[in-house]
Amino acid sequence: MATDGKPSFGKKNKKTHIICRRCGRVAMHKTRKICAACGFGATAKLRKYSWQTKRKVVSKARK
């Protein structure tokens, strides 16, 4: 029996994330108590990765 199709999507009406008290975004997981945006609850350091920001373009000047 296929029970993971269209009828199952009607049950997805609960909030999984609430407002984080450190960053203020709706990214704090209710059951895991960890913010997906800033990492609050897991670590004291702010969650950040190198791929989040664009790197500076280094101009290749002719010699």
Topology:
Layout lengths: L16 E3 L6 E4 L34
Antiparallel strand pairs: 1-2
N- and C-termini, Cα separation: 71 Å
Structural class: little secondary structure
What fraction strand?
5-15%
Global mean pLDDT: 92
Counting DSSP H or I runs of 4 or more residues, the number of helices is 0
Q: What is the overall silhouette?
A: flat
Strands, total number: 2
CATH architecture type of the domain at 15-45: Single Sheet
CATH class of the domain at 15-45: Mainly Beta
Largest sheet geometry: 2 strands, antiparallel
SSE series: EE
CATH T-level fold name of the domain at 15-45: N-terminal domain of TfIIb
Tell me the radius of gyration: 20 Å
